[in-house]
Design brief:
By secondary structure, the chain is of the alpha+beta class. The protein folds into 2 domains: about 110 residues, PH-domain like (Roll); about 70 residues. The protein is built from 6 helices and 9 strands, in the order βααααβββββββαβα. Strands 4-3-2-1-8 form a 5-stranded antiparallel sheet, covered by helices on one side.
């Protein structure tokens, strides 16, 4: 049995890739707790320093003793609050920002790619190139129920993204089982609710 996919990457494709890659690299619970505590601490310390500075200035105005804002403290305060907000920013929002950046720099927008998958390996063709590989070039496989993600390295975000509705030969529902049979590697599931979990 062979499978063929005719697809063109869109901004939606990139957003799906970024979201699933985050699930793929999901930090353990203890690491997420540390990040949350660090973000809260930065905001608390930065906000406290800002309140102290404001109180000093209010006292100076009230008693007409003069005084000025400490620029160094203000810079430190802004940095700490900004760092804290960044650490606490919902991951869904971060995914969207990351995907936008990738899409802006992506050069092959709307370029059609044809993939073919067979027991002996896979092949793809674009308007400017044609290549064939064996499955050892792929590190891990994921699906979110709408796309398949065939990653090119354990520590890399690069992947071939195959939309279920873009299969022109073969049933996308059976593609996971075929990949597992051909490669001996599991096709892992990224559930929709896990993919969009704000705090993963």
């Amino acid at each position: 049995m062979e499978y063929q996919v005719r697809t063109a990457y869109t901004e939606e494709t990139v957003e799906a890739l970024v979201a699933v890659d985050r699930v793929r690299r999901k930090r353990p619970l203890w690491a997420r707790i540390v990040v949350w505590l660090a973000g809260a601490l930065f905001i608390f310390v930065g906000g406290g320093a800002l309140v102290v500075q404001a109180a000093v200035q209010f006292r100076a105005i009230l008693y007409r003793t003069g005084g000025r804002w400490d620029v160094g403290t203000l810079i430190m305060t802004a940095f700490m609050i900004g760092a804290g907000l960044t650490l606490l920013r919902p991951r869904k929002r971060q995914d969207h920002i990351t995907a936008q950046g990738i899409w802006k720099s992506y050069k092959d927008k709307e370029v059609e790619t044809i993939f073919r998958f067979a027991p002996e390996g896979y092949w793809y063709r674009t308007p400017v190139s044609e290549c064939s590989y064996d499955y050892s070039t792929l590190s891990d496989f994921w699906t979110d129920g709408a796309y398949y993600f065939l990653f090119l390295g354990a520590g890399r975000r690069d992947a071939y993204v195959l939309k279920y509705t873009d299969f022109t030969q073969g049933d996308p529902a059976s593609f996971a089982a075929a990949l597992e049979k051909w490669t001996g590697k599991e096709v892992r599931q990224a559930r929709r609710e896990e993919r969009w979990d704000d705090h993963s």
